Amino acid sequence: MGYDIDRFVGYVNDGLLCSICRDVLEDPLQAPCEHAFCTDCIHGWLVHHSNCPEDRQMIDVSLLRPLYRYMKNDLNRLQLHCKNREYGCEMVCSLESIDRHERECEYSQIPCSNAGCTVQIERRNLDSHLAMCEYRSRECPNGCGYTILSAGDTQHNCVAELRTELELLRSEMICRVEEAKHEMESRLDSQRRHMVQKESILQNEIEELKSQMSRLMSDVRSLMAAERQHRQELEQAELEKREL
């Protein structure tokens, strides 16, 4: 929906009015036929139709484009009253700056920030409301440190509140201890499984080394026997040579 035309000061050109809601364009888009619409208006229209609401020419969402720059400039220069005029705000801004003003307007109706309070209050009166709001919270005046609502002063019992807090802390501590215990047991089991796997791997490596050592010793004995045989053959050859 567009901006209510009654909020504007002076004449508003018909070309700056939405062809659907007939209010001043808000977040405008333009069809190829040059008719302009508020974004929400034309999107809602095209859910059930496939043509321009003015001249019935076929259009599609993909054909919509931003407003021409000169029209956008004319739109931004329009002057209008703040939406909080009924609450006393007399500000008149350009359309380009109205959103910024209304976000900060002292006459805007905003909710009380205290949990449980449903009051809507003008921004300029918020501080005075918070100071006397029955849902405002404060620290217990008796020194227990508990935060209470002003409306609950008569029901507050320091001993009961501290006992409840102590029970909560004890329960939380037990839960944390149990969690830490389970975590440590899980870690120990994981490390135990890892050590068993490591031991098995090392044992296999030791057996492999023993096997290699055995084969190596067998090869050495074979070499030594071959060397003795070779030496004997040399000695025999030397004796035969001498005899010759």
- CATH architecture tag of the domain at 5-104: 2-Layer Sandwich
Supply the CATH superfamily name of the domain at 5-104: Zinc/RING finger domain, C3HC4 (zinc finger)
Low-confidence stretches: none
Kindly provide the radius of gyration, computed on alpha-carbon positions and rounded to a whole number of angstroms. Answer: 46 Å
Shape field: elongated
| Number of continuous helical runs | 5
- Average pLDDT over all residues: 87
**Given the helix and strand composition, which structural class is it?**
mainly alpha
Q: How big a fraction of the residues is strand?
A: 5-15%
Quote the distance from N terminus to C terminus: 131 Å
Query: Major sheet: size, sense and barrel closure?
Result: 3 strands, antiparallel
CATH class identity of the domain at 5-104: Alpha Beta
The percentage helix is 40-55%
- What is the string of helix and strand elements? EEHEHEEHEEHEEH
Give the beta-strand count: 9
Widest sheet, order of strands? 2-1-3
CATH topology of the domain at 5-104, by name, is: Herpes Virus-1
Pfam families: zf-C3HC4_2 (PF13923), zf-TRAF (PF02176)
Keywords: Coiled coil, Ligase, Metal-binding, Zinc, Zinc-finger
Protein name: RNF41 ligase
GO molecular function, one term: zinc ion binding
